[in-house]
Structure formats: structure tokens, C-alpha cells
């Protein structure tokens, strides 16, 4: 038990620049306290003391603002940062080295018994306010953007953003911030180049139409120079900068 506590403290000192000392982490980190309550409740749950286990979970929620069902399976070096409002449902599974920020829900979408909640593989980062809903898997090293709503599986190493979340798997989006890469995770699941793919597609369409308009104008000018009669379009020219600002 003490080895796990030392490991958790070292993990928090590594991933949280606001943590200044081991003593501060032990006394002031709600995520550490929530995991400690969960380990007690989980042991009681597995031993068959279900009501007592739920009571420990309730006490942990009252003291930390983090609700973890005692049946949840949690790996090593999991870091719940800030943590207020985190809710983790009964059949959720969390792998080693995951990072979860405040307001996250690992929830279910079914009232049927059995697996209802998500499984996080190793190294997943879930940004503040994200909702991951359903009995699917979030692959190792994946990142869920803040306030995203994820309702389907996320491939390993991918980024999910938006409502509902869209998966980003392009090579440029796989590059983490330099500082985050050194630390082994991306804070709040923020990555460079991690714009909403729908927004990126709209920008590309606008730029493509603007380029076509320029080509058409050049062709019309060339035809006029050859003496051809060119009928000018009556529509207004595309204002690409204004449209791009609207999409942003």
C-alpha cells in the first residue's frame, strides 16, 4: 500500500507543475485522496461487502468531489487532476498512466446489466469536462479534448474533439507539444494542430474555391486578350478572409 502511495505521489509531482512537494501532495491533492478511498472501497466490494463499499465511495465523494464506483478497476500511476465533478461508473476500467481532469464523466448509456461504461487503455488523457459514454475502448495513448462528448471507440494514439467527438488521426495531429512529449502526456489533452476536423475541412473548401476564382479570372483575362467576348458573373466575389473568420 505504501509503495502505491509513493508511486502516486511521484506521478503527481511529475505531471502537475503546481505541486511543490510530496507533503503538499499528500495533504492537498483531492485526486490522491479519492484513489485512496477507492482502493479501500474496491477491496470491500471484491470481498462481498457491497453496501459498506458504496458507503466508502460516498464518503470519498463528499470529501473530494470525485465519485468513483467501488467496482471500477483502476491501474497504476493514474492521476486525477483537480478532480471536482469527476464521475466514474461501475463497469469502467482505467489503465496505467491515465490522466483525468475535472468534470470528466465515464458514463453508461444503457440500463441493461453487464458492461456499460468505457475502458481506457494505458496513457489516455481526458480533458476537463469531457464525457465518455458507452461500453467501448479508448485506445492506448489517445487524447480526449476538453468538453468533448465521445460515444464511440477511439483508436490508439488518436485525438477526439467536438460534440459529438470526431477522431483526428492525421500525422500532423499525432505530434504532441514539445513540453508534453518530454513529460509523457498532453495537459488537458491539448495538442498542436488539433483543430476540429470539420473546421479544417471548411477552411480548405473556402481556400479551394478562392483559388478557383483566381484561375477563372486569369482565364477570362487571357480570353479577352485574344478578342473573345467574356460574360462577367453577376454574383459577388468570394470573400475568403471573412468566411475563414466566421468558421474560426
Report on the architecture of this protein.
The protein is α/β, with parallel strands linked by helices and 248 residues long. Helix content is 39%, strand content 14%. It is built from seven helices and 15 strands. The strands form three sheets. A six-stranded mixed sheet has the order 3-6-9-12-14-15. It has a five-stranded parallel sheet with strand order 1-4-7-10-13. Helix 3 (30-46) packs antiparallel against helix 4 (50-64) and helix 6 packs antiparallel against helix 7 (240-247). It is elongated. The two termini are 49 Å apart.
What is this structure, in a nutshell?
Helices cover 39% and strands 14% of the residues. By secondary structure, it is an alpha/beta fold.
Low-confidence spans: 176-185
**Shape type:** elongated
Percent helix, as a range, is 25-40%
Order of helices and strands: HHHHEEEEEEEEEEEEEEEHHH
Radius of gyration: 25 Å
Strand content: 5-15%
The major beta sheet can be summarized as: 6 strands, mixed
Structural class: alpha/beta
- Distance between termini? 49 Å
Major sheet: arrangement of strands: 3-6-9-12-14-15
Quickly count the helices.
7
* Whole-number mean pLDDT: 84
Topology, number of strands: 15
Give the SSE map.
Elements: H1 2-15, H2 22-28, H3 30-46, H4 50-64, E1 67-68, E2 73-74, E3 79-80, E4 87-88, E5 93-94, E6 99-100, E7 105-107, E8 119-120, E9 125-126, E10 131-133, E11 137-138, E12 143-144, E13 149-150, E14 159-161, E15 166-168, H5 178-183, H6 197-225, H7 240-247
Parallel strand pairs: 1-4, 2-5, 3-6, 4-7, 5-8, 6-9, 7-10, 8-11, 9-12, 10-13, 12-14
Antiparallel strand pairs: 14-15
Amino acid at each position: 500500500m505504501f509503495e502505491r502511495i509513493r508511486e502516486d505521489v511521484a506521478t503527481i509531482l511529475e505531471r502537475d507543475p503546481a505541486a511543490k512537494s510530496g507533503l503538499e501532495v499528500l495533504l492537498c491533492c483531492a485526486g490522491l485522496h479519492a484513489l485512496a478511498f477507492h482502493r479501500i472501497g474496491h477491496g470491500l466490494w471484491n470481498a462481498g461487502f457491497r453496501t459498506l463499499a458504496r458507503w466508502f465511495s460516498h464518503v470519498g465523494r463528499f470529501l473530494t468531489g470525485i465519485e468513483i464506483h467501488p467496482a471500477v478497476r483502476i491501474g497504476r500511476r493514474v492521476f486525477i487532476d483537480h478532480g471536482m465533478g469527476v464521475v466514474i461508473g461501475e463497469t469502467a476500467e482505467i489503465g496505467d498512466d491515465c490522466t483525468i481532469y475535472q468534470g470528466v464523466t465515464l458514463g453508461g448509456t444503457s440500463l441493461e446489466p453487464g458492461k456499460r461504461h468505457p475502458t481506457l487503455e494505458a496513457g489516455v488523457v481526458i480533458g476537463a469536462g469531457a464525457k465518455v459514454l458507452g461500453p467501448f475502448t479508448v485506445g492506448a495513448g489517445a487524447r480526449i479534448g476538453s468538453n468533448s462528448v465521445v460515444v464511440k471507440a477511439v483508436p490508439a494514439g488518436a485525438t477526439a474533439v467536438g460534440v459529438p467527438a470526431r477522431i483526428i488521426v492525421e500525422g500532423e495531429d499525432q505530434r504532441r507539444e514539445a513540453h508534453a512529449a518530454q513529460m509523457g502526456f498532453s495537459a488537458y489533452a491539448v495538442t498542436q494542430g488539433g483543430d476540429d476536423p470539420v473546421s479544417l475541412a471548411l477552411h480548405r473548401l473556402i481556400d479551394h474555391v478562392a483559388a478557383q476564382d483566381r484561375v477563372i479570372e486569369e482565364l477570362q483575362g487571357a480570353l479577352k486578350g485574344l478578342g473573345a467576348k467574356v460574360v462577367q458573373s453577376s454574383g459577388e466575389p468570394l470573400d475568403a478572409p471573412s468566411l475563414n473568420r466566421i468558421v474560426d
